[in-house]
Amino acid sequence: MASFLITGTSRGLGLALAKRLASLPTSQVGTIFATARQDNSPLNELISHSSGRVEFVNLDVTSTSSVQEASQIVDKKLQGKGLDYLINNAGALDWNNDGVVGMDNLNDMFNLNVTGVHEVTRAFLPLLRRGEKKAVINISTTLGSISRAPIYEQSLTPAYKITKAALNMLSVQYAQQFASEGFTFLLVSPGWLQTDLGGSRADLPVETGAEKVIDIALKTSPAQNGKFLNIHVPGWENASGNNQYEGGEIEW
């Protein structure tokens, strides 16, 4: 039974990831630590129907003290056991009609999308070292690929693109440093999802993105350490438009 910790589970992809894990058999998935700045009705409903498998832990990724307190709480709940999976999902998306020159929130976006991931990852490293899987899944996006920047030129989300590109490099740095300890640091793009952030015009239901991300996580191994992967959705391998979901590696 693997243990999981997910950031940003109060809504969207984070909540869908927790729901997907809770739907899997206990032989495969044990405790799921669902973290967020505050709980809410959808998350509490999931917890109440999880037979104790889903546990809420207060965690604000932009607060060092909150991150440290959460790691101590999880450590006590694990009772000496390790944490198998960390899924860094919490993040924010900007829209700016003025493009890059209109950015006035870049520091805030970095704090949430990059620094927050760093703070959470290093705080939970001692618990991950005790885990069997030692897997860190960082939720990224094809919009953070410099190679694919011309494809998404008309998407006016400059701070999101910049910070996700930085997240990709942060993940590679962790992958390189901890490869010798058997860690797997993996970047996954979950696709353009129908959430509050992605909007109703997005390609995929959030449940589909969550299912495919978890599929990748459960199958990952140290051989994939440092990779940037796309989800695979049958029928979307050669779709027209900007987005295809063929399950391969994403160019940087």
Automatic annotation (TrEMBL):
Q: Which InterPro entries match?
A: NAD(P)-bd_dom_sf, SDR_enzymes, SDR_fam
Q: Which Gene3D superfamilies match?
A: NAD(P)-binding Rossmann-like Domain
User: Which top-level group of life is the source organism from?
Assistant: Eukaryota
Q: Which GO terms describe its molecular function?
A: oxidoreductase activity, acting on the CH-OH group of donors, NAD or NADP as acceptor
Stored Pfam families: adh_short
User: Which PANTHER family does the record cross-reference, listed alphabetically?
Assistant: SHORT CHAIN DEHYDROGENASE, SHORT-CHAIN DEHYDROGENASE/REDUCTASE SDR
Q: What is this protein called?
A: Short chain oxidoreductase
Identify the species of origin: Penicillium steckii
Q: What is the lineage of its organism?
A: Eukaryota, Fungi, Dikarya, Ascomycota, Pezizomycotina
